[in-house]
Amino acid sequence: MTNFLVKTLANAAALAVAIWLVAGITLTGDSTGDKALALILVALVFGLVNLIVKPVVRLLSLPLFVLTLGLFTLVVNALMLLLTSWLADKLDIAFHVDGFWTALVGGLIISIVSWAVNLALPDRS
Question: Could you report the per-residue pLDDT of 10-19, keeping only the tens digit for each?
Answer without folding.
Answer: 889 999 999 9
